[in-house]
């Protein structure tokens, strides 16, 4: 091909006027038929292709033209992304395809309107489910398993399967778990006690546990998660944290899952400071219950779409573990304390975590790869959460003195 012929498509992109597009019409046909333009090529090549069908530079082309473009240049696309694009074309809400929607797909960004169009089109298409695809390696099977564990829509599962790279890995939950285990081992060696470690007279004398007398030390509202009442407490929390938290972080990312986890932790300690004012707090149950409650609520709300195996049995097992841990916490709270008049650690943090999970958590898990700021429920629950935090802060400042509550002495 003449070098001048190769240069003309780039010049047509630089000058988007209809006149230039018309003058380049002959070369446009050659560009459309060329195999040099790959689906994953830079954005300007795709813009050149779109310009052939959009001489007025409106940013839209018809669905028929879009389907023709996919048939010509979509052979090297990932099959799942090609299915998404064809579903978008089949939705045919207004007979046009927006170029920006196409760019968003290629860069793994989706707007709500784009997602609705894809879901509408996908109902009209019948393709093999992700579960039915043969010949997958171990890592691919793991990613597929996580997709079926956490995502209720087939299109989202395929999207996640295609786009997941493993970088960054699910580091947040793993790092928190390692620190929790390390702190427990350290205090186990220091106190020479592993079961019901909380019963040791020196247990509360550390800088991590939340104690009502030390509530002005703000870090304790979060740092208490690294202390556990005993190995029985740590084991259940770590088990649930890894089995539920790691897959959720693989899908939704460390930022969202970390936010949900820390929100549950903070809500747990603040709930104790309001509802069980004389009790200390230990354990990561607030964060763990936020993750598990959000996951279970998401499964129930999308029951028909969730394709994980033995849903009912596994939900029952998760609820049994949560109930056993909560029952242990209630029993311990009313068990005679070894450092009276200070009671044993409170169980109310579990309830604070559940409240965060079924509100903020459900919104996070239901909106995979979507902008949370576009969700009205997100802002409603954020507002409620902020109001609760502010209320609890003022409660901690004024209520203890107004109620003339006698707090247990420092350990």
Topology at a glance:
Elements: H1 3-14, H2 18-23, H3 25-33, H4 43-53, E1 60-62, H5 63-73, H6 79-91, E2 96-98, H7 99-106, H8 112-122, H9 138-150, H10 154-163, H11 171-191, H12 220-223, H13 231-275, H14 285-301, H15 311-334, H16 348-366, H17 376-402
Antiparallel strand pairs: 1-2
Helix pairs in contact: 1-4, 5-6, 6-8, 9-10, 9-13, 11-13, 13-14, 13-15, 13-16, 13-17, 14-15, 14-16, 16-17
- The portion of residues assigned to helices is 55-70%
Q: Summarize the biggest pleated sheet.
A: 2 strands, antiparallel
Question: Proportion of β residues?
Answer: under 5%
Mean pLDDT: 78
For the secondary structure, the number of strands is 2
> How are the strands ordered across the major sheet?
1-2
- Shape from CA axes? elongated
Radius of gyration from CA coordinates: 28 Å
Q: Could you spell the SSE succession in H and E letters? A: HHHHEHHEHHHHHHHHHHH
Could you write a compact summary of the structure shown?
This protein has about 400 residues and is an all-alpha fold. The chain contains 17 helices and two strands.
Write structural notes for this entry.
The chain is elongated and about 80 Å long. The protein has 17 helices and 2 strands. The N terminus is likely disordered. Helix 1 packs across helix 4, helix 13 packs across helix 15 and helix 13 packs across helix 17. The longest helix has 45 residues. The termini are far apart. The protein has 411 residues and is mainly α. Strands 1-2 form a two-stranded antiparallel sheet. 64% of the residues lie in helices and 1% in strands.
């Amino acid at each position: 091909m003449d070098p001048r012929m190769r240069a003309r498509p780039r010049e047509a992109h630089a000058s988007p006027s209809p006149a230039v597009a018309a003058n380049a019409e002959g070369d446009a046909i050659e560009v459309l038929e060329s195999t040099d333009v790959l689906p994953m090529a830079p954005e300007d090549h795709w813009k050149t292709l779109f310009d052939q069908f959009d001489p007025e530079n409106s940013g839209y082309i018809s669905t028929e033209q879009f389907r023709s473009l996919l048939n010509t240049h979509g052979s090297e696309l990932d099959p799942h992304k090609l299915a998404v694009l064809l579903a978008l074309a089949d939705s045919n809400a207004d007979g046009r395809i927006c170029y920006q929607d196409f760019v968003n797909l290629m860069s793994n960004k989706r707007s709500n309107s784009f997602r609705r169009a894809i879901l509408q089109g996908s109902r009209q298409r019948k393709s093999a489910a992700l579960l039915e695809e043969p010949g997958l390696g171990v890592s691919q099977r793991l990613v597929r398993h996580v997709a079926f564990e956490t995502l209720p829509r087939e299109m989202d599962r395929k999207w996640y399967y295609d786009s997941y790279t493993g970088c960054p890995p699910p580091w947040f939950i793993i790092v928190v778990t390692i620190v929790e285990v390390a702190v427990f081992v350290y205090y186990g060696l220091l106190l020479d006690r592993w079961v019901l470690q909380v019963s040791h007279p020196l247990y509360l004398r550390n800088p991590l546990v939340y104690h009502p007398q030390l509530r002005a030390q703000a870090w304790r509202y979060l740092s208490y998660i690294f202390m556990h009442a005993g190995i029985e407490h740590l084991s259940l929390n770590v088990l649930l944290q890894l089995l539920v938290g790691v897959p959720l972080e693989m899908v939704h990312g460390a930022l969202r899952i970390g936010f949900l986890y820390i929100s549950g932790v903070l809500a747990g300690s603040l709930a104790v400071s309001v509802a069980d004012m004389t009790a200390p707090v230990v354990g990561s149950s607030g964060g763990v219950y936020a993750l598990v409650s959000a996951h279970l609520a998401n499964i129930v709300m999308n029951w028909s779409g969730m394709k994980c195996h033995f849903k009912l049995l596994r939900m029952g097992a998760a609820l049994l573990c949560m109930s056993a841990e909560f029952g242990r916490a209630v029993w311990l709270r009313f068990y005679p304390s070894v450092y009276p008049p200070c009671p044993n650690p409170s169980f109310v943090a579990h309830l604070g975590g559940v409240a965060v999970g079924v509100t903020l958590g459900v919104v996070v898990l239901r909106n995979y790869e979507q902008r949370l700021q576009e969700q009205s429920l997100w802002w409603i629950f954020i507002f409620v959460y902020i109001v609760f935090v502010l209320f609890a802060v003022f409660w901690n400042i004024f209520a203890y003195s107004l109620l003339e509550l006698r707090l247990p002495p420092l350990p």
